[in-house]
Amino acid sequence: MAIALMTLVGEADRYLNAAQISDYCPNGLQVEGRPHVRRIVSGVTASQALLDAAVEADADVVLVHHGYFWKGENPCVTGMKRRRLQTLLGNDISLLAYHLPLDVHPEVGNNVQLAAQLGITVEGPLEPDNPRTVGLIGSLAEAMTAQDFARHVQQVLGREPLLVEGDGMIRRVGWCTGGGQGYIDQAIAAGVDLYLTGEASEQTFHSARENGVSFIAAGHHATERYGVQALGDYLARRFAIEHLFIDCPNPI
């Protein structure tokens, strides 16, 4: 069964409330391909490796979290950007990308999906009074040491995390997938035992250590694999089309 491309795009835009979220890139259809869709290939980033895999899989749409045309980037279509766009346009494949709308969504969002993977019960936003916040706060069913929680993260995500160990047991957790290390101070103010994100900056260590809070950087790619899978599955069910998630390895 096939569905019209613009019907698929319209439903994804509506479901994620994409038009209402200010972002650093255009959300939705970034590159237009063939007019009908039978198969979606999803992945974290629209890298050349993912595009090549999508061509091999005979995809009609590539659905990603990290697409193209970021604010402040060089707009010239040269080098890597030319090769990527040539792959899409030459094979008549559409590129559908959602950044912040996919982080914050309450059902398929990266943050709620990561919580489900790690067994964290979501309690609410990291900053209840900030409508732009993307981080969440939640709790574990049973308290555990920071080292035990880090081993749990490694087992689930398949990647050894960076751990800065704090003062006590872990029960209350704050997190923001991807490059959310800048939210550590808000998490500390909210009274978490541990803050988890994808990346770390030099000052993150000091914020964690001097406040006695544990910190985990589990990988930008590794923490953001689950939202796009959930969105692809939703669209596949909604329109009775095929969906294949392809995980292109990225250690960062």
Explained architecture:
InterPro entries: DUF34/NIF3, DUF34/NIF3_sf. One of its GO terms (molecular function) is metal ion binding. Belongs to the GTP cyclohydrolase I type 2/NIF3 family. The chain is an alpha/beta fold and 252 residues long. The protein folds into two domains: 118 residues, Udp-n-acetylmuramoylalanyl-d-glutamate--2,6- Diaminopimelate Ligase, Chain: A, domain 1 (3-Layer(aba) Sandwich); 120 residues, Udp-n-acetylmuramoylalanyl-d-glutamate--2,6- Diaminopimelate Ligase, Chain: A, domain 1 (3-Layer(aba) Sandwich). Helices cover 37% and strands 24% of the residues. The chain is built from ten helices and 13 strands. A six-stranded mixed beta sheet has the order 7-8-10-11-12-9, sandwiched between helices. The protein is elongated, with a radius of gyration of 19 Å. The model has no long low-confidence stretch (mean pLDDT 96).
The largest beta-sheet arranges its strands as: 7-8-10-11-12-9
The stretches of 5 or more residues where confidence is low (pLDDT under 50) are none
Whole-number mean pLDDT: 96
CATH homologous group name of the largest domain: NIF3 (NGG1p interacting factor 3)-like
Given helix and strand content, the structural type is alpha/beta
CATH topology of the largest domain: Udp-n-acetylmuramoylalanyl-d-glutamate--2,6- Diaminopimelate Ligase, Chain: A, domain 1
Whole-number count of domains: 2
Query: What is the name of the CATH class of the largest domain?
Result: Alpha Beta
As a percent range, the share of strand residues is 15-25%
> What form results from the Cα inertia axes?
elongated
CATH architecture of the largest domain: 3-Layer(aba) Sandwich
